[in-house]
Amino acid sequence: MHNSAHKRPAQPAQGRHSGSVGQLDLPTPYLLFLGDVTEAGYAKTAFGLRDWAPDKCVGEYALPGATVSADLPRLSPTDAAAQGAKALVIGIANTGGVLAPSWIPALLEALDVGLDVISGMHSRLGDHPLLRERAERLGRRLIDVRRPPAGIPIATGLKRSGMRLLTVGTDCALGKKYTALAIARGFSERGLTAEFRATGQTGIMIAGSGMPMDAVVADFAAGAAELLSPDTDPGHWDVIEGQGSILHPAYSGVSLALLHGSQPDVIVVCHDTSRAMLLGHEPFPVPGVGEVIDLTIRLGQRVNPAIRCGGVTINTSALDPDAAAVLLDREASRLGLPVADPMRGGDRFARLLDACLA
Amino acid sequence: MHNSAHKRPAQPAQGRHSGSVGQLDLPTPYLLFLGDVTEAGYAKTAFGLRDWAPDKCVGEYALPGATVSADLPRLSPTDAAAQGAKALVIGIANTGGVLAPSWIPALLEALDVGLDVISGMHSRLGDHPLLRERAERLGRRLIDVRRPPAGIPIATGLKRSGMRLLTVGTDCALGKKYTALAIARGFSERGLTAEFRATGQTGIMIAGSGMPMDAVVADFAAGAAELLSPDTDPGHWDVIEGQGSILHPAYSGVSLALLHGSQPDVIVVCHDTSRAMLLGHEPFPVPGVGEVIDLTIRLGQRVNPAIRCGGVTINTSALDPDAAAVLLDREASRLGLPVADPMRGGDRFARLLDACLA
Fold first, then answer.
1. B167 and A CB contact within 8 Å
2. In the predicted model, is pLDDT for residue A14 greater than 90?
3. Which residue segments constitute the domains of chain B, with CATH numbers given?
4. pTM, 2 dp
């Protein structure tokens, strides 16, 4: 950067996308592709879509040998297209994020019958010669949701209209996406206009649009977050999926760019009391919720002096209901804030929503 | 990010570089190309190289019509090659960062006589068909220093051996590079082994190597900073050029990734008391030095509990010596820290070096 910050051109094009400048925009509804998966853990993307975007899922399609199901109607690509599907989504997140050779015939079949193909893998669909040739010949789209759109500008930091809530975390992978989805749903159920804003690959597939924050060139990351939640009606809530943690040694830069670009009015901190050390960065202890709140408020005030913490969510899936209730109430008392598990809902989550809207 | 953080592959290749995994590495010495420049402000890159890397500069080469000189021997590409030059460096930073058509014959001439071509412009050398064809045919390198090397890993956060100093700022473009260069020189003059570690295009040309932090994909930015200052001898100092500001609404993510990836033992805060508002982001006031120190220490303790502030540098080039002395002493008294203008040197800068090494 920065000698001529105001003259910096936008981030150059990196992929092939539907929109001009802006977030990704995906063709829906989807046929979920399960490949030959035999471990439920690898089908997380499909499960997330089924749980949070059932209206976007017409069915599932697996290869012989697959033993995992998302409990959706089993449809061939031809049948799915006949029922209105616009794209086949690779619903698998395998180790390494690579396309398996055994999947290629199914992906070609999808292209043949009129579906686009959407992937959140690291390896790019268009790098596979057969897929690229077929898609080009038939005029189909190969969409890698990990590739940011072209034309992302440098952030301005200027205040935008409408309300914004950002989920932040004490670590990666402890519920920022699920918390944001549950809050957006809770706001909608109260009659507010609210939209989930996705920042990672699974969230983008669920929302049908979004910004893959971790793939944006660093200088443009805050600008990407600004694009993701543009000016809107004064009473509208954008509920933005957080990434990483402000105290994560590898991803803190993404978290801070997302904080400054999101300029949230409210943050909700996502935590897992059963996790002592950072996932995949075990020498580092998970930081305290209070420390993350304090730093996030101080840094976030730079772009929104009204920023405040609406509460804390904790993943209690490993506990029985009584033990979960004890933990949530103990933490609420300790922190002086509403604490809830959004997947359990109930009064605790209602009080958290109240506090976010107060 | 993050569900399988420990399984993330490295950032894919983006450019053509000399090294395999690691920082950029540039062929030196240089012939500085001044184009047809008539305003000294646009020749900043050439002046920076002349001031800080005179041993890397065999001469300068300008087109007819140029009125600006770096006061180096005027050499044709042929003569420069005969005197050992390995590359022609575009020493110009014009508005928009684009290659002027009038420069192309000179760049082709440089390739013809055996020089590589190095650019810090936004537009890529290899995107120009004539340059690309000529370089490929002759086996020369076209090096865009704004393109990061391939294979940058996700940061680990693990402590590395050796000592590190990072310059940080209250804004962009107020002396972080010059401060780092002056401190590295000051350490060397005291008999320490010290190395300037560049993070922006001009710094990279001065050092002959470095990491263009602002061009790295966000998820890999802290990892890029880790690559830039690897394990070294216990008494060795890496003096790392800072970027942006932890409180800059557009670039804070780069600054925090650089802080966490650099794991500095010492920070020096660079400030300009004559600047009230952020450059190019005028609605935002320049934050206070104390606030930047406090936030940087708190965030930096995550990866280096021993982090401390060695002092503050202020660009006083607009003041006469007496006024500068008054300002520097007033700020030193107010902050309780050594405050110096590294370009003025003297006792104040010596005390700042003392404090960094204390």
1. no
2. no
3. 27-144 (3.40.50.720), 163-357 (3.40.50.300)
4. 0.93
